[in-house]
Amino acid sequence: MTDPNPPQVEEGREPPMVDEGREPPVVEEGRQGPSRNHPITRLLVANRGEIARRVFATCRRLGIETVAVHSDADAGLPFVREADVAVRLPGSTPAETYLRIDLVLDAARRTGADAVHPGYGFLSENADFARAVLDAGLTWVGPAPESIERMGSKVAAKELMEAAGVPVLGNLAVGALRDGSSLASSGSGDGSSLASSGSEATEDDLPLLVKASAGGGGRGMRIVRSLADLPGEIEKAQAEAESAFGDGTVFVEPFVEHGRHVEVQVVGHADGVLVLGERDCSIQRRHQKVVEEAPAPSLPEGTRAALHEAARAAAAAIDYRGAGTVEFLYDAEADRFFFLEMNTRLQVEHPVTEAVFGVDLVEVQLQVAEGRAVGPTSRHRASSAAHPEGHAVEVRLYAEDPAAGFQPQSGRLASFTVPGVSVEFGPLAGPGLRLDSGFEAGSEVGTHYDAMLAKVVSWAPTREDALRRLAGALARARIHGLVTNRDLLVEVLRHEDFVAGRVSTDFLERSGVLEAGGKADHRDATVAAALALAEHTRARRTVQRGIPVAWRNVVSQPQVTRFAVGEEEVEVSWLGGRDGYAVDGLVVIAASTDRVVLEADGVRTAYDVVLDGGDVHVDSAAGHLSLRALPRFTDPAEAVASGSLLAPMPGTVVRVEVEAGARVEAGQTVLVLEAMKMQHTVTAPTAGVVTQLDVTPGTQVASGEVLAVVEGEAG
User: What backbone phi and psi angles, to 5 degrees, belong to 627?
Assistant: First the structure.
């Protein structure tokens, strides 16, 4: 059983549990890791959250000791507690902590780790990090640094794949930036540059896609539908890529409308390349995946086989070793596909492949790293050795508000339960639900990292069964304290086009699920919240507890409870007396502090209510609603001036584009915030004059803080 309080290694102190006599493994020249059959005994995961917990779970099954590294912001998260040894990395930003190669290697040395697993993101595709791990005499759980380098630049990787016979989309050349400076081809990766080749981009090439050459996850990507917008979008993509990956190099290619994102899981080993099927990852927002499944639905068998063979050729072209993913853009209308990139690491969505093939991909990674033959893992199903069994679907649960442009959320996760979970952090032994989470109830979700809370995976004999099981579990989940994309995920899983397998990367926009979620009628849920609050007030009485809630000798007017729902203010009118509660249009069947049952037109609905300070969370078959109870009277000191631009979330100001006293037009950019590795533009709500500007680049701001004031023009 894992120690709930692992030994901590503070900067400047000697670590506990270090085997001083342990000899480092011998690294043979030209090999990607240790000598053959050298067993890993203590593994450091150079990552955080959910992926750290995932790797730890396999290590516990195999008897491998674990080491966590953590930032100050992550000190209270579960992955730190679950490790055998934990090392603090001072600071909170990625640049101060998880991106510091020197600190990570020092942690490995001080704890006696003999291997390093990079997880995904951060340093996972950094060839210099892989090389430094090997140079330190440690086992690197990943591909050779040379393989990472060859696939690390999307520009160079496309050239390599084209030479290997894999279909690619050509890059386009671009004329000039807004300031007139040239966008000459570089692709060097030093600073912000644009790698361009081929023909000049024209109106006929529209729409275009600007992409970061390094990294992924949707960062540094922009769709451009007008050539006039292209220079500005390139600048934004360069800035975002430089911030996220330390490399601002971007390139431009044609954007395929209604395309599908299909990727193939490969495992390179001494005897060749093992292909473990494909995944469809077409449901995306901001170019980031939110729903993934295996096998890919509605895919012609000939195309499926061609994708597998192309992925095998891609991996073989660089003598790839370990788990990797080859991503393709599939044009369903023309039944053709193009190479996008190769991720030289474990993917976020690896659990769906584990489910249908009955393997543990982390264990496979360890087998390759130890120089052993790739064979059955501890969760291997013999029946799935060559072909996928059943269907698996994964959703990414994010702390974000889909109704506000998927704005990331931060704060305390008050409640977090998903019903019916069969296993956590491990391949499913049979049909059921799997949960891989980085947080738990009570965890603080900060602004320094990605907003993903968890992944929920369903595996069943058929796709229809998997979708229904997953949608039902999400609908019954209790996730409070932060706005999430849970209800949107349920809408997607139940949408007729998605159920029919009609998927594409623009599904969220064309399907109408975003608009449907924003138009949900939560009137009855607000009534339930008001009555639960009333019952809470009655329960807190110290005298006259027998008197009915809101009882009056002579009733002159109803009681009014006010709530804030997002940026909207709502009022609930109700009456109380000897006969219970009365609300227009509803029959109150029962009411307590945590459950309210209402009847409308003969249909009864139960509402589960959680009171968390001033916040009220209501869950029902209609979904989740989060409200904040408002006081009857507002403190004048808390009022903000008209025209105030408030920070939509905690973050850092990275750019200010106006000065105090400047005149601005409606929609003009005032400043840019960076939070959770994404940039967010704050614009003027109306034409007017900037009368107040309280921030400069580098300023840290809290959610709701006044950034600037734009005084509108009279008349």
Answer: -130, 160
